[in-house]
């Protein structure tokens, strides 16, 4: 007959798979967040470079048409940055949820492992007591046969 610890084996294995899947999902989410933040940084650097060009070209003098085109493009660039900021924030939220899910699964797995270990210790204690009882009985029988 299987002990309680052995009967929990499949549950522990399933919990290990769940925890492993949660870790992979968290890693994927973190990678997607890193990509979103990288794109945001690129857009912000591009905006800074573009604004520097205005300073350089503005000091030489520009036409009204050029200035209107510049402002239009800068407005579109600001909109793209805003969208990318929202995208990056969405990914931060997803990472936070994935981290919470992983922490929950990890805690469950550790709880199961501790339970299995406790059951094993209890089983060892029962076996030790049974063995001690057998030894005591053997010693008593041995004494009674010699007396």
Report on this model:
With 147 residues, the chain is mainly alpha-helical. The protein has a single domain, classed as Helix Hairpins, CATH 1.10.287.1700. Helices cover 95% and strands 0% of the residues. It is built from three helices and no strands.
Please give a handful of descriptors for the protein shown:
147 residues, mainly alpha, Helix Hairpins, rod-shaped
Topology:
Blueprint: H1 4-7, H2 9-60, H3 64-146
Helix pairs in contact: 2-3
By oligomeric state, this entry counts as single chain
Supply Rg: 34 Å
Distance between the termini: 40 Å
* Low-confidence region ranges: none
β-strand percent reads under 5%
| Class based on secondary structure composition and strand pairing | mainly alpha
Number of helices: 3
Describe the sheet with the most strands.
Answer: none
Helix coverage percent: over 70%
How many domains make up the 3D coordinates?
1
User: What is the string of helix and strand elements?
Assistant: HHH
């Amino acid at each position: 007959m299987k002990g309680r610890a052995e009967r929990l084996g499949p549950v522990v294995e399933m919990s290990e798979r769940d925890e492993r899947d949660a870790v992979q999902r968290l890693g994927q989410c973190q990678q997607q967040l890193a990509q979103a933040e990288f794109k945001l940084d690129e857009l912000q650097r591009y905006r800074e470079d573009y604004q520097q060009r205005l300073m350089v070209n503005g000091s030489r003098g520009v036409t009204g048409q050029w200035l209107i085109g510049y402002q239009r493009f800068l407005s579109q660039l600001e909109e793209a940055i805003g969208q990318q900021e929202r995208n990056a924030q969405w990914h931060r939220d997803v990472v936070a949820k994935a981290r919470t899910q992983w922490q929950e699964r990890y805690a469950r797995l550790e709880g199961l492992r501790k339970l299995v270990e406790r059951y094993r210790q209890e089983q060892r204690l029962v076996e030790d007591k049974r063995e001690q009882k057998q030894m005591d009985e053997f010693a008593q029988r041995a004494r009674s046969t010699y007396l």
